[in-house]
Amino acid sequence: MKLNQELKMALASIRANKMRSFLTMLGIIIGVMAVTLLVSLVQGATSTITDQLSGLGGSNLSCMVTKSASGITLEEVEALEQEPEIGLVSVYSTGSGVAKAAGNQEDVTINAVNQSYQLLNQLEIESGRYLNAIESEYRLTNCVVGAGVAQNLFGTKEVLGETIRVNGKDFTIVGILKEEGSASLNTRDLSVFLPFETGQRLLGIKGVLTFEASAADEMSVDKAERTLNTFLQGRVGEDNYTVFNMGSLLDMITTVYNVLGYLLGGIAGISLVVGGVGIMNIMLVSVTERTREIGIRKAIGAQKSDIIIQFLIESVVLSLMGGFIGLVLSAGILGIVNVFAADYHFAITFGVAMVAVIFSVGVGVVFGIYPANKAAKLKPIDALRFE
């Protein structure tokens, strides 16, 4: 018998028992939905978080002085840019404060930074410009503000040239950052950026205590880390500093999320096995109901392989239809989730969809082989006598 005839018989059997077929597929539908939804949610969260961490600088090295008797000067740190394995060096100090303007006030984060901070941290300027080296060198009172600071103090983002008072000192706004939103891991919307020397004096901090450095290229990260360790060990002592590799954090988080994805996918895959058991049970019932049909087919010349293929195809079609319905429902649910979680993007990738389809076919074959083999082993005379 041709394959297309076997397929027509399988579809006819499914249509003849619509409710039973649907209930049989329900286990596969739920299993596929569980697998695709959980894996897609983990993948979406992983992608969003890794993108945000990459935005913080995947090849950046963050350095912090925990104890220093003499202190490190700005010139000493910026001289590290002359090392071949190091790209840019950004010094910064952070503190809290209050910004006032136009009769309003806002709690803000004060950042004392140099001109390399923008490039290392990928700050996007919406209007105006960023701070330059001259402003830090001559301790000028210019500043760059986050979009939230401008909006909350002035009610608009058109604030270039306006004056704000930060911790009792007036500053002129020369730049406004692009709004990042609350979903960002390191949002700067409520931050004020001051020239390093000016900001240090406002915060009451002496010397460089924190700075970042980027490797010259991805292959030089380890060399750059060794250079920074040597520099800091010579300046403040072996136990008085830390060097943190952002790339290592990114790799660690990616690994954790990958393991979580496999774990949740495996747990959800149990639902597919349960669905497969349901298919096997119904196929055994179908074999019993169609015993006479099997006997007639074998009596007129059907081979054992024909019977096996007939019931296997029916099992696979049931499983595959359940898989496709599960994928469609999963896509719809993820679309709804994306509406309410606009800062994330969840979608079923081609790889996840293919795995779901392959598993559906595999479940149909594995759990359909026993009923199919049982049907094929029936003797024609016994089958014809069956009531």
Summarize the structure.
Helix content is 57%, strand content 18%.
The separation of the N and C termini measures 26 Å
The helix content is: 55-70%
3D shape: elongated
Q: How much strand content do the residues show? A: 15-25%
Widest β-sheet, arrangement of strands: 2-3-8-5-7-6
Determine Rg (CA atoms, Å).
33 Å
> What order do the SSEs take from the amino end to the carboxyl end, as H and E?
HHEHEEHEHEHEEEHEHEHHHHH
Output the structural class: alpha+beta
Calculate the mean pLDDT score and round it: 81
Number of helical segments?
Answer: 13
Q: How many E strands?
A: 10
Q: How is the main sheet built?
A: 6 strands, mixed, barrel
Low-confidence stretches: none
Count of domains: 2
Description of the structure:
- This protein is 57% helix and 18% strand.
- It contains 13 helices and 10 strands.
- Strands 2-3-8-5-7-6 form a 6-stranded mixed beta barrel.
- The mean pLDDT is 81.
Name some characteristics of this structure.
57% helix, 2 domains, alpha+beta, single chain
Fold blueprint:
Elements: H1 3-16, H2 18-55, E1 60-65, H3 74-78, E2 86-101, E3 104-113, H4 117-120, E4 125-128, H5 133-137, E5 142-145, H6 147-154, E6 163-166, E7 169-177, E8 191-195, H7 196-203, E9 210-215, H8 221-236, E10 241-245, H9 246-289, H10 291-299, H11 304-340, H12 350-376, H13 380-385
Parallel strand pairs: 3-8, 5-7
Antiparallel strand pairs: 1-9, 1-10, 2-3, 2-6, 2-9, 4-7, 5-8, 6-7
